Amino acid sequence: xxxxxxxxxxxxxxxxxxxxxxxxxxxxxxxxxxxxxxxxxxxxxxxxxxxxxxxxxxxxxxxxxxxxxxxxxxxxxxxxxxxxxxxxxxxxxxxxxx
Length: 98
Description:
This protein is mainly α. The protein contains four helices and two strands. The chain has one domain. It has a two-stranded parallel sheet. It is globular and about 45 Å long. This is Lipase. GO terms for molecular function: hydrolase activity, acting on ester bonds. It comes from Paraburkholderia madseniana.
């Protein structure tokens, strides 16, 4: 079901879309995930949003470094940093950054 919806959406773009196995890349670069639930305690953040997530609201110390999601939708700062690093590497390999 999700695959057919994704194909329909990407077909509407009119441009090819490259699938990336980002989790494999993250794990290869030392990102050890201890939990895939929320890094921010929903009882400590109004409206259960990552916008107000901070060390005081983490479910465990350094949860932003070991969890994938800050809330039920948004990635943690560590995952964002790893994704940015991956994109920078891809741009450097392609020669577009020169």
